[in-house]
Amino acid sequence: MADGLRRSASLRDIAEAAGVSIRTVTRVLKGTGSTSAAARTRVMAVAERLGYRPNRVAQALRMGRTMEVAVLLSEVSAPQMAMLRTLEETLRQNGYAVSVSFGPRGEADEIGLLSAVEHLLRRKPDGVACFGDARMDLSAVLRRVATAGIPLVRLTPDNGAGEKAGRAMAKKLLGDMEG
Description:
CATH class of the largest domain: Alpha Beta
Helix content: 40-55%
Shape: elongated
Strand order of the largest sheet: 2-1-3-4
Strand content: 5-15%
Radius of gyration: 21 Å
Number of helices: 8
């Protein structure tokens, strides 16, 4: 390309290079249907050589889900960081990406919080995790997320912190998103 950026390999690119149909490429990459071992080997080798990566945007349009969880943070302490890390790891192991946005620093700022949550909601997440501190009134944020019909988990200092809390938040969110 003229600007030096390389276009991602498409299913069509793989099919042409492997000498098979796009439908065969789709079956191989999804691991569904029947395909000969030779075609499967060829498709996987070509996909690897071309650096194929699934297009998450196309998948989201097709599935009606983004496989993304939005995280809204205020201040982050060491125990909350451990919880956030565990939340992200658990969600990633279940196929979800995590996007993070920080709300305003310090004292509660409802307009700043709503701006941050609107930024996250434009990404059409499948779920939202909200980490607030005792000074933050999150009621407007919670109402906005509920209005959008998106599952939400909320962490406050009363919920605990650390890896155990992160795993519990992830499991609740996963259950709400699947249900």
